[in-house]
Amino acid sequence: MKKFIAMVALVLIGATTTAIYAQTSAAQRRAERKAQRDAKRARLKAEERQQEQISYEDAVAALKANQFVLEGDQVMFPNGQNAFVNSNTNFVLVNGEHGTVQIAFNTVNPGPNGIGGVTVDGSVSDMQMTTDKKGNVNCNFSIQGIGISAQIFLSLTNGGNNATVTVSPNFNNNNMTISGSLVPLSQSNIFKGRSW
After folding, report:
1. Confidence tier at 169 by pLDDT (50, 70, 90)
2. Exposure winner among 59, 111, 154, 181, fewest CB in 10 A?
3. Cβ atoms of residues 120 and 104 within 8 Å
4. How many domains is the chain partitioned into structurally?
5. CATH code of the domain covering residue 9
């Protein structure tokens, strides 16, 4: 009987030890998986920040060279309405002393430019660029042409190539704001309609 009790005691001690070891092992595996997930997230976040910084530096270089395109994905009108648009057909382009503003909506009416909106070309002048303490870049210039006479106010936020452009016509108060990505002219993927 003493042998039987001793055996039962050994079995119980062994089972308890195995259960404790299994719990500890499972907790360690969970902790290791969590550490791996956290390390992967941190690595991806660092890569994303690095890519955003490269995009920002490319955008600033394009602004300084007067060779850039703001590819707009959202247009805001003076009455407060917003429209999400195609970035290939909605843009503000500067190529040296030449500038283009194009707005095109996916409508049945082809509009003056043939793609559902308006495309106007002109000469760029009075380019002024400033950078604040946080690294945000503001750029102001004029575009003068047959179909356009406007002041352009561009704002590029630090840490990426997200930018906004406000087009302020000189003869009326119908300001329009376009938000999107500022890219070098050589990297842009735009489709230009008929201009006037």
Report:
1. confident
2. 111
3. no
4. 1
5. 2.40.128.410
